[in-house]
């Protein structure tokens, strides 16, 4: 019987070859599925690693496995596999994507990470001061159905529009044939992304921007879209729902990790959990 927060047999079959490749030498490692279930438990419960139930094994072993998978790209590979499955099953919309950002309040324990950082670790650890206090922003792109496609992190005080291009550039949707999908037909965003530069970026890459203006009554300047697609913009609630689903995981609703790489890995695990539940719900 599968416990709460734990991966189903069907879900494990989809990703087993990535998470638990055959071991040819060395000491036998602890069960990878049990380790992954322990990570899901921490993600969803928001508890400390030391409070991990004994059924998942020593907490330090589960945490070490989390760091290993964080550093070697296992979580990203698993998410890519699940996105491919959604695409092959026809559950992913490749025409209409949307982008937005949400702020995550960080605890005092999240501050004070190593000042040197690593080759991929920002010196500020994606932490900043905003009206909400110490916060991190998650910049996310999802499709019309709310499946997460790519995300980036930034300090909480930075403007959403500054991370529009960098977040879109992270999209790399694999397909069974042909090149990975990187662009959509429509890109939907709220007035926080109201910028001529961002609209021109969409035009250069063959995307139609559906971006609300800060002043919807102002006169449109030459060279800019003259009609606003209200029905298409109305689909933007999908990304709000996506944020809601992700923040049901308490480790995402509040940031506890000191390192940006660890919090990024947690967000990736939350996206994995979302995609696993999506595949399962459409089969039942």
TrEMBL record:
Domain Transposase IS4-like residue range list: 99-271
GO MF: DNA binding; transposase activity
Signal peptide: none
Protein name as it appears in the record: IS5 family transposase
GO terms for biological process, alphabetical: DNA transposition
Domain of life: Bacteria
InterPro entries the record matches: IS402-like_dom (IPR025161), Transposase_11 (IPR002559)
Stretches assigned to the Insertion element IS402-like domain: 7-78
């Amino acid at each position: 019987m599968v416990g709460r927060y734990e991966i189903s047999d069907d879900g494990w079959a989809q990703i087993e070859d990535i998470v638990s490749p055959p071991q040819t030498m060395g000491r036998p490692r602890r069960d990878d599925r049990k380790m992954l279930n322990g990570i899901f438990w921490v993600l969803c419960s928001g508890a400390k690693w030391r409070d991990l139930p004994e059924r998942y094994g020593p907490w330090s072993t589960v945490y070490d496995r989390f760091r290993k998978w964080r550093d070697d790209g296992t979580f990203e590979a698993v998410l890519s596999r699940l996105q491919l499955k959604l695409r092959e099953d026809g559950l992913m919309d490749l025409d209409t994507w949307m982008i937005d950002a949400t702020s995550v309040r960080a605890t005092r324990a999240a501050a004070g990470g190593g000042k040197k950082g690593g080759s991929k670790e920002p010196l500020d650890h994606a932490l900043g001061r905003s009206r909400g206090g110490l916060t991190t922003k998650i910049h996310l792109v999802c499709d019309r159905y709310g499946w997460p496609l790519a995300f980036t992190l930034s300090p909480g005080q930075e403007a959403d529009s500054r991370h529009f291009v960098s977040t879109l550039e992270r999209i790399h949707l694999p397909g069974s044939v042909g090149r990975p999908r990187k662009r959509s037909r429509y890109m939907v965003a709220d007035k926080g992304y109201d910028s001529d530069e961002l609209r021109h970026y969409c035009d250069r890459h063959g995307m139609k921007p559906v971006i609300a203006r800060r002043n919807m009554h102002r006169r449109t300047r030459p060279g800019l879209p003259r009609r606003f697609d209200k029905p298409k913009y109305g689909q933007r609630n999908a990304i709000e729902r996506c944020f809601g689903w992700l923040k049901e995981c308490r480790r995402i609703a509040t940031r506890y990790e000191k390192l940006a790489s660890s919090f990024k890995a947690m967000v990736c695990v939350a996206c994995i959990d979302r995609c696993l539940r999506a595949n399962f719900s459409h089969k039942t």
